[in-house]
Amino acid sequence: MAMTAVARETVFALRRQIAKIEGTLPERLAAPAAAPLDADVGTDITIVRRGIAAALPDAFLPIGVERLDAALSGGLPKAALSEIHGTETRDAGAVAGFALSLISLILKQTPGLPVLWIGTSEIFREAGFPYARGLHAAFGIEPEQLLFSEAPKLVDALWVAEEAARMTALAAVILEIRGNPQRLDLTATRRLHARAQAGGRPVFLLRQAAEPEPTAAPVRLIVASAPAVPRDTIAGPLAGSIGRPAFTLTIGKSRTALPGQFTLEWNPDERAFDERAGDERRGEGRRKERAKNPVSVVSLSGGGKDPAAAAGAVLAFPAVGSPILPTARDQPSRPQRAAHLSPRRAG
């Protein structure tokens, strides 16, 4: 149905008011010039998020999980401020691990660029720093690609984050804050969101042990660690083993999605997320995989000979009376024993 000129002006006025509240740039509210508002616009040209902003298809970072990306209308916005919350202090590792997983996905698209991690002395003293060797093994991030800026006060950390958000030499900016400080108010997050939009790069606000509060971030994700499942092998789950890192992800705030909860597993080999299915679905998936690949995973020996039978039981220690077990005459005498075996004298 065609819109009248008065109705169109009313819609634009409402959009401008919403833009002032949410900190959206005015140029993102302009209607596409190629077609009128009442015409059908192809999804390959623009993606309209809730009727208030238009963005290009590559404006979102897909997480790689179909249901989650569909709920977020394509993924996390690249040029925006996104919140990642941990409700308790013990969730700091899960929040940081999830943020590093997102950085790994970003560096696939922009390899070679560094990432700046900003935080106060308090948060780095409480949560620590990422392990350098684990960065490459689990996320494919080289240690020299992750830069840290430790600020003595929150006001300094906010200033560094605002200046870094508009630097084209960075792939992303991470700001880690503990609790609900008074300076991190709606105005401060509006400035961060506006700088991220102007610079065209993501700014992730990590909130450790924080309660949800009004901010300008379009998306808020609440992250906690999920129990790891046993490692899945051809023969089934390996008892007593620890599988991939897992996260419980809750959509706490989104302009396009309803609240929902997902359990994600990070695959460090493929550097991608997988959604964890239930036990029944996992078992059904293994049965389908075995039916599709019925042959043995390891081929037989080329010589055609069977491997030699086991020699016998393997013991961690030699049995009593074994020739490799030292006898009493081979033991050192008491004066020859090491000094650290004798009791330490007082004084």
Offer a quick outline of the entry:
By secondary structure, the protein is α/β, with parallel strands linked by helices. The protein is 28% helix and 21% strand.
List keywords for this structure.
alpha/beta, 8 helices, globular, 347 residues
Distance between the termini: 97 Å
Taking pLDDT < 50 over at least 5 consecutive residues as the criterion, the unreliable ranges are 25-54, 279-287, 295-300, 339-347
Strand line-up in the sheet with most strands: 7-6-8-9-5-10-13-14-15
- Count of helical stretches: 8
Mean of the pLDDT scores? Answer: 77
Spell out the helices and strands N to C.
HEEEHEEHEHHEHEHEEEEEEEH
Radius of gyration: 28 Å
Shape: globular
The overall strand count is 15
The protein's oligomeric status is single chain
Percentage of residues in strands: 15-25%
Percent in helix: 25-40%
Biggest pleated sheet: 9 strands, mixed
Report the structural category.
Answer: alpha/beta
Plain-language structure description:
The chain has 347 residues and is of the alpha/beta class. The protein is built from eight helices and 15 strands. It has helices spanning 5-22, 66-71, 92-109, 121-127, 132-139, 154-165, 186-199, 279-292; strands at 47-49, 53-55, 60-61, 76-77, 81-86, 115-120, 146-151, 172-178, 203-208, 219-225, 232-233, 236-237, 246-254, 261-267, 272-275. The strands form four sheets. The chain has a nine-stranded mixed beta sheet, sandwiched between helices. Strands 1-2 form a two-stranded antiparallel ribbon. Strand 8 (172-178), helix 7 and strand 9 form a beta-alpha-beta unit. Helix 6 (154-165) packs parallel to helix 7 (186-199). The protein is globular, with a radius of gyration of 28 Å. It starts with a helix and ends in a 55-residue tail after the last helix. Residues 25-54, 279-287, 295-300 and 339-347 have low confidence and may be disordered.
